[in-house]
Write a structure and sequence with these properties.
Strand order of the largest sheet: 6-9-10-22-21-20-17-11
Helix content: 25-40%
CATH architecture of one domain: 2-Layer Sandwich
Distance between the termini: 53 Å
Radius of gyration: 31 Å
CATH topology of one domain: Gyrase A, domain 2
Shape: globular
Largest sheet: 8 strands, mixed
CATH superfamily of one domain: GAD-like domain
Number of strands: 22
CATH class of one domain: Alpha Beta
Length: about 600
RNA sequence: GGAGUCUUAGCUCAAUUGGUUAGAGCGCCGCCCUGUCACGGCGGAGGUUGCGGGUUCGAGCCCCGUAGACUCCGCCA
């Protein structure tokens, strides 16, 4: 038996008269008592099948029993549709198949949800993922994902890059996310860890002389989940030798252009704008600024330099800054009650000390809890610098630089959302954020930590600052690529000298002994002629999510896990019996529920 | 670990200030229907309103607890 001569999206009026065989699922049935229509669906499309009792009574009789999602094979003759019955919504809408033979390959039970309806219950979708994936939107997402990974492989191949697989069973890393551990049966008491990223291996491949490496790599991080996060996710990982920041960025711009061209048919302009980290924070309050709208943060410290308002006074005296942003025309949308809630939100969620505002009433009055503390000169300067007009709402941040940036950055995004500033915008604002700081002080741990990772190269002109212990001022040769306020990926030029790497570890408070224990292999590798190298990693799922136009990463992963890291289809993770644990020399301390 | 929102038929949702027998669309089942394409018509089945407790003459609705889902914060270079 032959299942098919054509796919369900293939036939056209020019095929009229030929005998064909199609296989697929019953998408819908329209039973008129006499004549019966079946929309037959496979992954390539839909074709209408007609069962005519006056011509083929036996087959027509058989067809009455068909139900949604039955799997069938139909043989018949391609016929142009009767005058006035063509369907312009279908690719195959000019023809139909007059069935002469019907084989039911497999009956289907009634589905738990209809494939053509909106399903809000994600549990149900995940439990029956194989049905969910039959839905056109999800099927499109799978295809889109294939197109993106294919474009990626083609691009890197053409650029002379080698795809090299690196171990899944690897070592725990002392920094970064929580590791997934895998007990090592052959070495009792020891554990592998699943890789958070192929970071060290890709650098070792450079020492190995691979020169141009890439991988579409699965990565694992045992942290709490989010809409755009999964326990396991996919990175496009790249690393090259004898390269520069500019070369890596140009390479990645080419990749993204290729991906958007082949998946969406969109030409994106390159090169992308570059913005130093410091500027991104100052203007947008974020290291991944969404530049599709203005609402920029404005410096006011000089205006209030002589302020007698105690809150501002103490902030300025303590070395902090006063800044504000102007939500143009927001006054009619933000009521006084809402603005009070904003302050509550800033305090509880953002850890701000407060969130002062000025709301201009239609009569031009300034409604604000703080404006009474301002002098006339301050008010005038403020209004001028922020271009304050009737209907505007100002939000103030007064704190240390970092705090003000964080709070106003979040306020900015929330304003944009509530004011619908990006609605209907087709803009694709790519940009590079560059010159990241190398180190940041972690107050809780009372130590310096790497902003990017410990292998990131300090800027040559800032090396003296590193030696002088002025860690906060040292910039890194690190860069993030951002699209519409979403970080697509990041990378850096690495340290390739053993000496410099040791100095970096030193700054991070990792002593000689710990260096040897945890990174000895890398330091030794660097001592055997490691070439200068650098690279970048992109969050593949996130990119596909943006291209697909969905807001959940789960929509672009075939079998994702839910918020608690469970696979509702297979019920993973599961408990295992004592015997299996004993072989691995481990024991569970979990309390039995 | 914390906050918010949600949970009513197989699915998507409704149910006035707490008030009769909890409704609709789709789906499902039966009958009718020979040109539909979200076919149509008639009829039918289908509910412990997540679970437990409380307030009340009376609770889907109010209160407390609990479970689950989602979103966010923490966390995640």
């Amino acid at each position: 038996m032959k299942y098919r001569t054509h796919h369900c999206g293939a036939l056209r009026p020019s095929d009229a008269g030929s005998e064909v065989t199609l296989s697929g699922w019953v998408d819908s049935r329209r039973d008129h008592g006499g004549v019966i229509f079946i929309d037959l669906r496979d992954r390539e499309g839909i074709t209408q099948i007609v069962f005519r009792p006056e011509e083929y009574p036996a087959v027509a009789g058989q067809s009455h029993g068909l139900r949604s999602e039955d799997v069938i094979t139909v043989t018949g003759k391609v016929a142009p549709r009767l005058e006035g019955t063509t369907n312009s919504k279908l690719e195959t809408g000019g023809i139909e198949i007059i069935a002469t033979q019907l084989t039911v390959l497999n009956k289907s039970d009634v589905l738990p949800f209809q494939l053509d309806a909106k399903v809000a219950n994600e549990d149900l979708r995940l439990e029956y993922r194989y049905l969910d994936l039959r839905r056109p939107q999800m099927a499109r997402n799978l295809r889109l994902r294939h197109r993106v990974t294919k474009a990626t492989r083609d691009y890197f191949d053409e650029q002379g890059f080698l795809e090299v697989e690196t171990p899944i069973l690897s070592n725990p890393t002392p920094e970064g996310a929580r590791d997934f551990l895998v007990p090592a049966r052959l070495t009792p008491g020891s554990f592998y860890a699943l890789p958070q990223a192929p970071q060290q291996y890709k650098q070792l491949l450079q020492v190995a002389g691979v020169e141009k490496y890439f991988q579409i790599a699965r990565c694992f991080r045992d942290e709490d989940l989010r809409a755009e996060r999964q326990l396991e996710f996919t990175q496009v990982d790249v690393e090259a030798s004898f390269t520069t920041e500019l070369e890596i960025q140009t390479l990645v711009e080419g990749l993204l252009a290729r991906i958007f061209r082949e998946s969406k048919g969109i030409e994106i302009p390159t090169p992308f704008p570059r913005m130093p980290y410091r500027e991104a924070m100052d203007r947008f309050g974020s290291d991944k600024p969404d530049t599709r709208f203005g609402l920029e943060i404005v410096e006011l410290s000089d205006i209030f330099a002589a302020s007698e308002f105690k809150v501002f006074r103490s902030v300025l005296d303590g070395g902090g800054v006063i800044r504000a942003l102007n939500a143009k025309g927001a006054a009619e949308k933000f009521s006084k009650e809402q603005l009070k809630k904003w302050e509550e939100w800033a305090k509880t969620e953002l850890g701000a000390k407060g969130l002062a505002y000025i709301k201009t009433s239609p009569t031009g009055e300034w409604e604000s809890p703080i404006v009474k503390f301002f002098s006339e000169a301050e008010k005038n300067a403020l209004a001028e610098r922020l271009n304050l007009e009737t209907g505007d709402v100002l939000f103030f941040g007064a704190d240390q630089w970092q705090g003000v940036c964080d709070v106003l950055g979040r306020v900015r995004l929330r304003c944009a959302e509530l004011l619908g500033l990006t609605e209907g915008s087709g803009a694709l604002n790519f940009l590079w954020v560059v010159d990241f700081p190398l180190l940041a002080f972690a107050a809780e741990e009372n130590k310096w930590v790497a902003v990017h990772h410990p292998f990131t190269r300090p800027k040559a002109e800032d090396l003296s600052l590193l030696d002088a212990g002025e860690f906060a001022k040292v910039r890194a040769v690190a860069y993030d690529v951002v699209l519409n306020g979403v970080e697509l990926g990041g990378g850096s030029i690495r340290i390739h000298e053993r000496e410099l790497q040791a100095r970096m570890f030193e700054a991070l408070g990792i002593g000689a002994e710990e260096q040897q224990e945890k990174f000895g292999h890398l330091l030794r590798a660097f001592s055997f002629g490691a070439p200068p190298h650098g690279g970048l990693a992109l969050g593949m799922d996130r990119i596909i999510m943006l291209i697909a136009g969905t807001d959940s990463i789960r929509d672009v992963i075939a079998f994702p896990k839910n918020n608690r890291g469970q696979d509702l289809l297979t019920h993973s993770p599961v408990t295992v019996d004592f015997k299996q644990l004993r072989e691995l020399h481990i024991q569970s301390t979990a309390k039995k529920g």
